[in-house]
């Protein structure tokens, strides 16, 4: 049985959403955010203290985009994966990696220096610079969606889940108001997917059942 360690609407939402898309059985273990401070016993599971942590037998993974690639390759019978001999393979990998390194990381600086830090450690200039940086990087997403419904391979893949989470985070930060038109329409389409909505409901219920706060991680304020 796959085990996913998760905090509400943190980057571990990527594998949660993908597990729902794939219809795979899994166990969801909820943690208060950030586990490093709120549940120090989690450090014995993942010394980094970060989520996601996915455990699949002897395999333990802590990178959300890598987990999406792993689940799609290993558990989707090709449905949400792009094969190495597919012409879209390179684009697929590029979107998967871009989803966190380019589209999520700058937003974590906005989050940290607008909300998570306090007093003189708040850095409004850093936050606005990296918000602009993120919005500029959306240009590549906007371009890809000019003539396609999804990012690559002419169909919905794990890359759409991975990039979709970056858009979810942007929504929590209020940056979605500045999405360019094709990105905005794409995000509206992704949110209609039953597996996305199911993942939102499942994490909420699991938080209640496991006695963890239901506030999404990006909305927590110190
Ligand atoms: N690159 C990793 C980043 C993982 C990460 O930093 N997760 C955040 C939640 S979005 C976390 O657990 N933060 C808690 C902490 O840093 O203590 C990924 O894509 O999964």
UniProtKB/TrEMBL annotation:
One of its GO terms (molecular function) is transferase activity. Gene3D superfamilies: 1.20.1050.10, Glutaredoxin (3.40.30.10). Keywords: Transferase. Pfam families: GST_N_2. PROSITE patterns: GST_NTER (PS50404). Residues 1-79 form the GST N-terminal domain. This is Glutathione S-transferase. The keyword Transferase applies.
């Amino acid at each position: 049985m796959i085990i996913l360690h998760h905090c509400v609407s943190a980057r571990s939402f990527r594998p949660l959403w993908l597990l729902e898309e794939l219809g795979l059985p899994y166990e969801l273990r909820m943690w208060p955010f950030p586990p490093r401070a709120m549940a120090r016993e989690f450090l014995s599971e993942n010394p980094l203290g970060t989520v996601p942590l996915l455990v699949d037998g002897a395999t333990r993974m802590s990178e959300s985009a890598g987990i999406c690639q792993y689940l799609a390759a290993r558990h989707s019978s090709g449905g949400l994966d792009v094969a190495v001999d597919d012409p879209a393979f390179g684009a697929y990998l590029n979107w998967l990696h871009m989803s966190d390194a380019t589209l999520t990381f700058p937003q974590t600086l906005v989050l940290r220096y607008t909300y998570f830090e306090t007093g003189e450690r708040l850095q409004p200039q850093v936050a606005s610079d990296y918000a602009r940086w993120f919005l500029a990087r959306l240009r590549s997403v906007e371009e890809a969606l000019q003539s396609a419904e999804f990012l690559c391979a002419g169909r919905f893949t794990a890359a759409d889940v991975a990039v979709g989470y970056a858009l979810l985070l942007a929504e929590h930060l209020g940056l979605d108001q500045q999405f360019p038109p094709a990105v905005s329409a794409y995000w509206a389409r992704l949110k209609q997917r039953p597996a996305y909505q199911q993942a939102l409901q499942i994490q909420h219920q699991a938080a209640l059942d496991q006695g963890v706060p239901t506030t999404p991680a990006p909305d927590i304020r110190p």
